Amino acid sequence: MTRDSIRGSSDRSTLILTSLAEAPKHGYALIKDIEDFAGVRLGAGALYGALASLERDGLVEALPARRSWG
Fold it and tell me: CA 20 from chain center: how many Å?
């Protein structure tokens, strides 16, 4: 499946996995990338709900938080 073939898709899992195929991303970067390549704007609730499902299914895993303290 190519980026062109999923433009306008509303399947959140497909959109998220397509975005993450390039590199790990935090939530805001996922939202922006998906909006750029698919023309779909996911809200934070939809994104994090879908990410939780993908994590439960073993398809993604959260990276440890990075601290950037002064």
Answer: 6
- Asked if residues 63 and 24 have their Cβ atoms less than 8 Å apart, the reply is yes
Q: How many CB atoms lie within 10 A of CB 11?
A: 13
pLDDT tens figures, 13-42: 999 999 999 999 999 999 999 999 999 999
Read off the pTM: 0.77
Q: Where are the domains of the chain?
A: 3-56
3 state SS of 39: coil
The arithmetic mean of pLDDT across residues 36-63, rounded, is 91
Q: Are 24 and 62 in contact (CB under 8 A)?
A: no
* In contact, 47 and 31? CB cutoff 8 Å: yes
Q: Which two tokens stand for residue 65?
A: 């938080």
